[in-house]
């Protein structure tokens, strides 16, 4: 079972304020433990939404909306992807996640990812499964 731990953005992260060295140290220690346990798949921080964009779809038309995006509480500042044997194991790892922004209220969100086998049999899913960059 794969899970994504999403770190919610704050006004500081959206302003591009870098966390203190102590936060980088705590995150590194946590991710080293994940790697040692063999559950770490990927992890990274995201640049502020001012450097990003959204693609809006409306009845077959696409438009690009440049950041920044106003509602900081809905934005993601970073993520960690893990592979756990159960929801409970993933929850235990999430509870060990270092507090991302200790000087202000913040949260992380954990979501289980769909596995290709859960999407049902179809020609499109089989084509997707054969893509070389897709981890299973």
Automatic annotation (TrEMBL):
- One Pfam annotation reads YCII
Q: Which residues form the YCII-related domain?
A: 1-111
Q: Where is the signal peptide?
A: none
Q: InterPro entries in the record, alphabetically?
A: Dimeric_a/b-barrel, YCII
| Family matches, as PANTHER family | BLL7163 PROTEIN, BLL7171 PROTEIN-RELATED
What the record says about family reads: Belongs to the YciI family.
Name of the protein in its database record: Dehydrogenase
Native organism is Achromobacter pulmonis
